[in-house]
Amino acid sequence: MNRPTDPHSFTQASSPTGTTPGYMPGFGNDFETEALPGALPQGMNSPQKCNYGLYGEQLSGTAFTAESTERTWCYRIRPSVKHSHRYEKIDLPYWKSAPNVDPDVISLGQYRWDPVPTTDRPLTWLTGMRTMTTAGDVNTQVGMASHIYLVTESMVDDYFFSADSELLVVPQEGRLRFATELGIIDLEPKEIAIIPRGLVYRVELLDGPARGFVCENYGQKYELPGRGPIGANCMANRRDFKTPVAAFEDREVPSTVTVKWCGQFHRTGIGQSPLDVVAWHGNYAPCKYDLRDYCPIGAILFDHPDPSIFTVLTAPSGVPGTANIDFVLFRERWMVMEDTFRPPWYHKNIMSELMGNIYGQYDAKPQGFVPGGMSLHNMMLPHGPDKNAFEGASNADLKPEKLDNTMSFMFETRFPQHLTAFAADEAPLQDDYIDCWSDIDKKFDGTPGRK
Ligand SMILES: O=C(O)Cc1cc(O)ccc1O
Ligand SMILES: [Fe+2]
């Protein structure tokens, strides 16, 4: 394993929290941060000459005239265009983009996978990305892909950006460092990160091999869901999101930049590290969030509400309330509902549900859905508690009970998800998954009364 860069080798802005790397609190704020004093122009964006001989450059994450605009002004040692030479197409055969409908693969069904085993093979963030499902169309900026990553090697003098997507990263094992143009994010299990479309970065391992999940969002950016009658607090609170302070390196070494663009990958060589943004201001930036900060709201008398109450982030699709992607978190919480079947109910959903287990046991599937594992309950296909969960919950003594040691999530999309050949043939698919419902017995015998 290559050693991660010492964050002290970057010149970093001071941080309000005094940590290294440093972060600024807030979600979608207008941040400003400078790693050298006076590097950030005040009162304007484009002075005739910038301090320190920096170049001003705007990174636009929304259309110039969007209803709510997001952009960041970067002051950097060289403009990005100096970072792009002629591109050569390269193959990353395991990183697929929608549309990717393989005629030999059936996606209609209920699927569950054991964790994809970690490996000794050298795999970076790019070569270790394994697409499980795709939905929508990357060319029209609609839909998503779900991936698992296996990382055993840091990227060295090798950088990446996705023009196709913003990435939501959900680590499950191992710690990663995202050294980005706008600063450094260190990420570990129980945290998530959002890496915006177009942002250049490299990913380094902080310790042993890393595994986790990624939701690649081709559409509109993630935002916090409206809380409705819940009010101004709970669920994910804005201040708990952390955006890195400016950090740059001035290293002139032969390097490569890989770009994901309309589902294809291209690579170019450059003569320096592109992480040379000395100061920036704006509201288009990467961030991380500790899932332990998520404050769940739930039923406190009876019944089991829709899982939308556990939405951490939502990426709109253009149809109000019908998300391109909802990121939903099932974490530790108290179950107190009276006279209620407490686990998820049996259901069919127009939205497609891709789930992953970060740690512990999920209440609807006490066996078989293990940490690092995934499941897919695709559009309108029935699912719900397995036989054991049903019997347990319908006969339980309904005292207040803490669901402890549990953290699973769902990438829920309005679009059907198509399995990749990797998900169908190479990943450890559980062939017997649907048997978990097969011995659910008939209790109806024509006589009234609860059974
Ligand atoms: O299917 C699942 O396990 C996810 C889920 C959880 C829940 O509490 C309600 C509905 C739902 O789809
Ligand atoms: Fe479901």
UniProtKB/TrEMBL annotation:
Cofactor(s) the record lists: Fe cation
Record-given protein name: Homogentisate 1,2-dioxygenase
Positions annotated to bind homogentisate: Y362, H383
Location of the Homogentisate 1,2-dioxygenase C-terminal domain: 293-444
Record CDD domains: cupin_HGO_N (cd07000)
Polar residues bias: start-end ranges: 8-20
E.C. number(s) listed in UniProt: 1.13.11.5
Classification via Gene3D superfamilies: Jelly Rolls (2.60.120.10)
Keywords assigned by UniProt, alphabetized: Dioxygenase, Iron, Metal-binding, Oxidoreductase, Phenylalanine catabolism, Tyrosine catabolism
PANTHER family cross-referenced by the UniProt entry: HOMOGENTISATE 1,2-DIOXYGENASE
Active-site feature positions: H304 (proton acceptor)
Gene Ontology CC, one term: cytoplasm
UniProt KW Metal-binding keyword: yes
Protein species of origin: Pukyongiella litopenaei
Residues where Fe cation binds: H347, E353, H383
